[in-house]
Amino acid sequence: MVAPVANPARGDAAPGRRWPAWLVVVPFLAYVGVFLVYPTALVLIGAFQDANGGFTLDNVGALTRGVHLQAFLRSVELSALTALLGAVLGALLSWAVAAGRPDGLPRRVVVAGSGVLAQFGGVPLAFAFLATVGFQGLVTQVLRERFGVDLFAHGAWLFELPGLTLVYTFFQVPLMVIVFLPALDGLRPQWREAVASLGGNSWTYWRHVGGPVLLPAFLGAALLLFANAFSAYATAAALVSQGSPIVPLQIRGALTGEVLLGQENTGKALGLGMVVVVAVAMGLHALLQRRFARWR
Amino acid sequence: MAVKVVRWLVLLAFGVFFLLPLLAMAEFSTRGAGGTRSLDSWSGIVTDPDLVDAILVSVQLAVAGSLLVLVLLVPTMTWIRLRLPRLRRPVEFLCLLPIAIPAIVLVVGMAPLYAWVDYFLGGSPLTLTFAYAVLVLPFAYRAIDAGLSAIDLKTLAEAARGLGASWAAVLLRVVVPNIRTALIGASLLSVALVLGEFTVASLLNFDTLQVRVNLLGKRNAGVSIAVSLLSLLFAFALLFLLSFVGERRRGAAAGEG
Question: If residue B28 lies in a helix (H) or strand (E), which one and from where to where?
């Protein structure tokens, strides 16, 4: 038995290899197969199965009417509204941050804070808003005692769609900063100088150069925000304990509640619906991103 | 000049919007009986054995989850760059897939899977490690991919092999030290993500930090708000640290170039 001799000039074609090259990636593929592909397939296929495993379109059909359709419409509305708010406000904040020094403290704090709120908020965000504008929240109390204003005069809005809109915006703005800040950094100072040397002012620059260049990045980011809000679950679950106004909460109901006979796979159909919506948004996002990449 | 004023006004307005809830959490969690101040909610964190257990579980999950994802990804991604470039696209696709599949959807498919995990490995909450490694896959992949792109992997590997190093030595003594900042970045992100995870744990009925916080909030909002504030601040500290880690890598790269 001769030990394999490594060839320094051509490390690629080491002769005498005793095992095939693809063996190294087997653990990874096996793991991803079991814990990612299998559960995903279970959802996507299960959406088209009845209780006995036979093919059916009933589950998916149920999405097109009644409470499920309403939940989808509400989810889309909530996601679109908070994506729009988040994109506009987030772009404004990105601009304020990008105009400063790249290694300055404001930027560092905003970026780190944005990362926390955008990606790791979840349940803590729900409690943050309970502490602020909940029944006993700081702002609620101050308004009630000092100004005689009752925040809850029109019902428990914090635990319904208006509350979700407020809390979702709170994590959408930071996500916009994370996604949009690099795009703003990509604007070349030479462009601004060129506009200035041709006699243009700040408005001409944003109207004819900055704006058009950034538009695809802005729209792409807005789509990402939409997908983000659409997929969000933790904050809504912690805030809304009664009823299931949006799709993720309906999936919770399907997983934890009593399941009616013949509707065993409704949760999977809801999951399929979510994947389709998110996939469309992410696909468009990828297209716009490619368009923006041309300028870099 | 006017632009500068507007810029600071914008920063100020957002500062108030984002700090107000955090301030309110601090205020709420220090309320005592009859309008007094008290730290009962904060001491309640360590005196609630269930909460302490849940925190310990989450910390273990954070460590185990980030280790698992690194052990899975680093050898695979290194090997693919060296030997199997054709697999790069498919593996990238698989790693980024969890972005397109919301956790709430993934958990629907994981529920039956975890019946099997429970059967083979027992019902320990630490089995959540498997699910969490999947959730952090996209973040870890991007960080490690950036790290590997920044070094001349082929030359390094060939040099080490030429000097008689085994593949294991190449991986552990050449690749890992060279992409350590990327590995630290991937781990910090994974830790923060796992500590904040709620969806999968709650729907698979495991008692982790966020699940316990949510449960606790139903009867004692003060403690829940205190823990929430603490976990937000901790995640902030991790990411703030991360911003310096990334910087050192850029600095080092500039020095080499």
Answer: helix B2-28
CB-nearest to B79 from A24, A139, A251 is A24
A120 contacts B193? CB cut-off 8 A: yes
pTM: 0.86
Answer yes or no: do B12 and B101 share one domain.
no
State yes or no: pLDDT of B252 exceeds 50.
no
Q: Which residue has the higher pLDDT, A157 or A293?
A: A157
| Higher pLDDT pick, A223 / A139 | A223
CB under 8 Å to A292, separation ≥6 — which residues? A183, A213, A214, A216, A217, A220
Residue B235 lies in a domain: yes
CB atoms within 10 A of CB B169: 14
Query: Distance between CA atoms of B19 and A97, rounded to whole angstroms?
Result: 17
| CA dist., res. B77 & res. B71, Å (int) | 10
Query: Containing domain of residue B25, as a range?
Result: 1-38
Question: Is the CA virtual torsion A204, A210, A212, A213 positive or negative?
Answer: positive
Q: Which two tokens stand for residue B104?
A: 């709430």
Q: Is residue B181 located within the same domain as residue B206?
A: yes
> What ipTM, to 2 d.p.?
0.86
- What is the total count of domains within chain B? 2
Chain B closest-CA separation from residue A211 CA (Å)? 17
